[in-house]
Amino acid sequence: MKTYIKCGTLIDATGAQPMPNKTLVVEQDRIAAIVDSADPIPDEDVEIIDLGRYTVMPGMIDCHEHLSLDVGDEAAQCSQPLPYLTMVAVANARKILQAGITTMRDVGEKGFIDVEIKRGIEAGLIQGPRLLTSGHPIIRTGGHAHFIGRETDGIGDMRKAVREQLKQGVDLIKIMVSGGNSTKGSLPDSQEFSDEEIQACIEEARRNGRKVAAHLHGGPGLKVAVAAGVHTVEHGKLFTEEDVKTVANSDTWLITTVGVGEVAETMPGVPEFYKQKAARASANGLKVRKWAKEYGAKVAVGNDTNHCRMDTEARALIEAGWSPMEALQALTIRGAEVCGLEDKVGTLEVGKLADIIAVDGDPLADIAALRAVPFVMKAGKVEFSDTVGEP
User: How far apart are CA 48 and CA 41, in angstroms?
Assistant: First the structure.
């Protein structure tokens, strides 16, 4: 049976202008056609979904998240038993999908929670976005986020750590190249692994068909990672102008994560050391984003425990010079490119998976409209619907 989705305004995220009065024709899990809403619907067994009051756009793609963590004291959260952390992850997966995020990279979980959550989603046991998993982040002994990852020392142990993640069937490898904000005593712009360890990680992953995401606020590790062929650098809030040029002149993507720091600065219960480091990073972050725009770095976004707030990440890009359409593309097709899924998701085009959301308002006029998502379809299945048709 075909499903006809009538759109008030269609933003396909290809960069084309918004289109009024279009209808998406969905067959099984794919977009079969895009037609004028005035065209007659064939007299056959069809389902009609009227989203005529809404803006319809592709499902969003979050390139940096952790399902079992929320903004706050991450060490304390990770001290909880794995069954409890799994329940947190299940609840967050559902909320993230309901917010219109249909694809997500999970860049680090304790106990391979992400691998099992992905399995549960694909089996239809729980609701959540399409997941790309990384398993345990690879961390030097005592390094940033040592409470969640696989502590690793030396080239041989680095290769073993990568292989342990591969054994679990992860989609990518995560390495903590620099220190971080949320770990006590960690220096966010220090290089936490030797050059040779970083190179071994990326080489081992690539030899086995996996890409590497590098946690990297700043510091000398950036040039090492980029030269070794790292796929993404995460955060980048302490990058210098030369650092941004290095990224822009490479095939590496920058994944910006603005909202988590903004929330950490003011939220009760966040450790004081985290607040202070987050404030320092935020103070430099706008400059980094402006340089990224100026020099043409490839940019996508992630919420990084500030779950569901893609509007915050888009707003941060707009403040730095992206047009609203470019910001929307960073949340959709650019994220798909990061995930290697650009032929399947990220835009609303014939032949692609029917990852379709509706938002109440015009996100190109007011990006905050992304917070009101009354309808979510993932791969042709309606996951959430709280819509009102045309009067």
Answer: 9
Which residues make beta-bridge pairs with 51? 7
How many CB atoms lie under 10 A from the CB of residue 167? 10
Is position 259 within any domain?
A: yes
Looking at the structure, tell me whether residues 163 and 200 fall in a common domain: yes
174 lies in the same domain as 246:
yes
* Alpha helices per DSSP H over the chain: 74-78, 82-98, 113-122, 155-167, 195-207, 221-228, 241-248, 259-266, 272-295, 310-319, 324-330, 333-339
Structure pTM?
A: 0.96
Q: Which residues contact 55 (CB under 8 A, 6 or more apart)?
A: 7, 8, 9, 10, 11, 18, 358, 359, 360, 361, 362, 363, 369
Q: Please list, in sequence order, all residues whose beta carbon lies within 8 angstroms of the beta carbon of residue 17, skipping any fewer than 6 positions away.
A: none
Do residue 179 and residue 315 come from a single domain? Answer: yes
Q: Name the domain count of the chain.
A: 2
pLDDT in tens, 221-254: 999 999 999 999 999 999 999 999 999 999 999 9
The one-letter amino acid code at 325 reads: M
CB 275 within 8 A of CB 255: no
Q: For 68-125, write each residue's pLDDT tens digit.
A: 999 999 999 999 999 999 999 999 999 999 999 999 999 999 999 999 999 999 999 9
Q: Where does the pLDDT of residue 390 fall: very low under 50, low under 70, confident under 90, or very high at 90 and above?
A: very low
Domain CATH code at residue 130: 3.20.20.140
Record the tokens describing residue 175, joined without a space: 């390495």
| 3-class SS of residue 234 | strand
